[in-house]
Automatic annotation (TrEMBL):
Protein family membership: In the N-terminal section; belongs to the HFCD (homo-oligomeric flavin containing Cys decarboxylase) superfamily.
Domain Flavoprotein: 7-168
Reaction it catalyzes: (R)-4'-phosphopantothenate + L-cysteine + CTP = N-[(R)-4-phosphopantothenoyl]-L-cysteine + CMP + diphosphate + H(+); N-[(R)-4-phosphopantothenoyl]-L-cysteine + H(+) = (R)-4'-phosphopantetheine + CO2
Annotated PANTHER family: HOMO-OLIGOMERIC FLAVIN CONTAINING CYS DECARBOXYLASE FAMILY, PHOSPHOPANTOTHENOYLCYSTEINE DECARBOXYLASE
Protein's recorded name: Coenzyme A biosynthesis bifunctional protein CoaBC
The keyword Cell cycle is annotated on this UniProt entry: no
Organism for this UniProt entry: Actinomadura alba
Region feature (Phosphopantothenate--cysteine ligase): 200-409
Pathway participation: Cofactor biosynthesis; coenzyme A biosynthesis; CoA from (R)-pantothenate: step 2/5; Cofactor biosynthesis; coenzyme A biosynthesis; CoA from (R)-pantothenate: step 3/5
Enzyme Commission number: 4.1.1.36, 6.3.2.5
């Protein structure tokens, strides 16, 4: 074990979703993290000690009486770079919120001085119970990141919010938190939950404007940047509403996802979510125009005549509308995709829209749209320019949230 490897404590609660955590553990270890699994005693009834030991490469104990000479109930929390608890059951959240220390995991939570993440999983009624909501609020107030559970199939035939997000999504949360709390050599650690207690809205993807039941006017936006913004906001403690238009991407763990199709759908969903939001980031590519007339039957190709011209009308300007309706202290961020004179066009758009920040991308063939990386200049209403060199879209997302966090009251 090298000193450079991030030290992660993976706490496992007594829920049937514990089997999913085996995949999270595999992803953490294979990406270079040194992981010690600390289950509750009842969690071992779902996944046994040999499995955790084999996947982590470390012995596993649930009580404070093993290896007492090494004082594990204190040392594990002190040495950790991250404590990640999944699944966090209602019982485990309650014990953590009230500072109980009746096993090795809850002792570790009390001694940890690093970021702590809880990924809840339980039945919907338990998640929505006032006691659970109060415990979650208490943990968040103390600086812990409590990821919103996913919605979907639960134990048995039940369906609803309370499902543990997929391991790949939880891994991205863990990686994002560690990237801020344990940056590269020489870089200062950044606040890991500077958006805690904030509600942010992010739009993602590209809208489609129907011509007939088969055809539409669309664009090349993949939603990768919007989803990166949602993931990084979750990792920084925010409650995230993601309004996603026509994306083929997994839902970011911890975000509430609202799916839309057209610009009108997007406008309605964003306006509704923005009414209670501290910040709105409009990363989606929204169509400026839509067909004036929708044909309810497929337009047939004629052998003798060409197609009739499609008359277009303007869609409502969502960004300008948000600025006009903004609540006190709300920060609004727009995106601009430009092919030439990007700064000049970006400045003109910023002045026209009236938002606080405008992220300007140069787009083109194999550039930005659909690509895994991005480069941008973030223009501010007070005249500053923040250059973001080409890199992962999560890096640009963090720059955006840094600028947003600095402007929140």
């Amino acid at each position: 074990m090298t000193e450079n490897r991030p030290q992660v404590i993976l706490g496992v609660g007594a829920g049937i979703a514990a089997y999913k955590v085996c995949e999270l553990l595999r992803r953490l270890t294979e990406s270079g993290h040194d992981v010690r699994v600390v289950p509750t005693s009842d969690a071992l009834r779902f996944v046994g000690e040999p499995t955790w030991a084999a996947l982590s490469g470390h012995p596993v104990a649930a009580d404070v009486w093993s290896d007492v000479d090494q004082v594990p109930h204190v040392r594990l929390g002190q040495d950790a770079d991250l404590v990640f608890v999944a699944p966090a059951t209602a019982d485990l959240l309650a014990r953590a919120a009230h500072g109980l220390a009746d096993d090795l995991l809850t002792n570790t939570l009390l001694t940890a001085r690093c970021p702590v993440v809880f990924a809840p999983a339980m039945h919907t009624e338990m998640w929505e119970h006032p006691a659970t909501r109060a415990n979650v609020a208490t943990l968040r107030a103390r600086g812990a990141l409590v990821v919103e559970p996913a919605s979907g199939r639960l134990t048995g035939t039940d369906t609803g919010p309370g499902r543990l997000p997929e391991a790949a999504d939880l891994f991205e949360v863990a990686r994002g938190v560690l990237a801020r709390s344990r940056p590269g050599e020489g870089a200062p650690a950044l606040p890991t939950a500077d958006l805690a207690g904030r509600h942010v809205v992010v739009s993602s993807g590209g809208t489609r404007e129907a011509i007939d039941p088969v055809r539409f006017i669309g664009n090349r936006s993949s939603g990768l940047q919007g989803h990166a913004l949602a993931r990084t906001a979750v990792a920084r403690g925010a409650r995230v509403t993601l309004v996603a238009a026509n994306v083929a991407l997994p839902d970011p763990a911890g975000a509430e996802v609202v799916r839309v199709v057209s610009a009108d759908d997007m406008r309605e969903a964003v306006r509704k979510a923005a009414s209670s939001a501290d910040a709105v980031v409009m990363a989606a590519a929204v169509a400026d125009f839509r067909p004036a007339d929708y044909r309810d039957q497929k337009i047939k190709k004629s052998e003798s005549d060409g197609p009739e011209p499609i008359r277009l009308v303007k869609n409502a300007d969502i960004l300008a509308g948000l600025v006009a309706e903004r609540t006190a202290g709300q920060v609004i961020v727009g995106f601009a995709a430009e092919t030439d004179d990007v700064i000049a066009h970006g400045r003109a758009k910023l002045a026209r829209k009236g938002c606080d920040l405008l992220v300007v991308n140069q787009v083109g063939e194999n550039l930005t749209l659909g690509a895994a990386d991005n480069a941008a200049v973030v223009l501010t209403a007070d005249g500053a320019e923040v250059d973001v060199p080409r890199g992962p879209k999560e890096a640009l997302a963090d720059v955006v949230w840094d600028l947003v966090a600095a402007r929140l009251l």
